[in-house]
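Reply to dn_fold:

You asked what the input looked like. This is it:
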Amino acid sequence: MATTSTAPALLAGGASLPASAGRAGFGGALRSEFTKIRSVRSTYWTLLALVLVCIGIGVLFSFGEASHVQSLAGTRAGSQEAANARSHAVALSLFGLLFGQLVIAVLGALTITSEYSTGMIRTSLTTMPRRGTVFAAKAIVFGAVALVTGLVTSFGSFFAGQAILATQNVGASIGQPGALRAVIGGGLFLTVCGLLSLGIGAVLRHTAGAITAAIGLLFVLFVLSGFLPSNWAADVDKWIPFNAGGAIWEQFSGQNMFHPWTGFAVFCGYAAVALIGGLVLFRKRDA
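and this is what came back:
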């Protein structure tokens, strides 16, 4: 009876291939996903666009508010406007996150849908057949990249905006109550936006469809909520994904909105549903 040899295979000249290192593990999956995300040039351009869009819009809004305060200086209306600017100084500098969420949503969707469009997903699953491991590695690597970029963006927006507002003495310091929470929350908000989009991408497996669905959920739904009748808005507004997640960095007014961390927990719940749904379908469907 023939036996199967476990010795290393021989190459020409007598050299041998190294023996198999064993079953591919989670660490290898993480390294693989990190290599994928950093080897694609569009990743760098998208992240750069995220930083520039958020900081640029924050600077524009801060400059506009500072100019408005300056134009009303010395008047009673000017005093009221200055007080209003101080109370919203943090949110003014972070306003670019409203549009930055759309940029990170694009990258989140592309992280998984691009592999389906190129057929690379079949290679990935041949190398690592454990689909749950592949999906978890994608989510962790993307989440880490999004978090680091989100924090850099949020802190950059805050300090750039406050430097402009400070010229009219209406800026805020990072030590002001709620300021540090809002700035860190801005980075967390962008991270969860990206993960939500990644989950949608896993469900739809189509780049255009995933990006459209993510933008519709994060931005269009927020815009449409402004047209709700007032008696509906009181109960619905706080459940809108952007309103729930944005509560951690935006100073929403009104008694019907969630507290910052409660709203962020609701937003994380939306992302968790998308990711769990994506994982279930990722494990069941053919590549």
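The mean pLDDT is 87.
Hope that clears it up.
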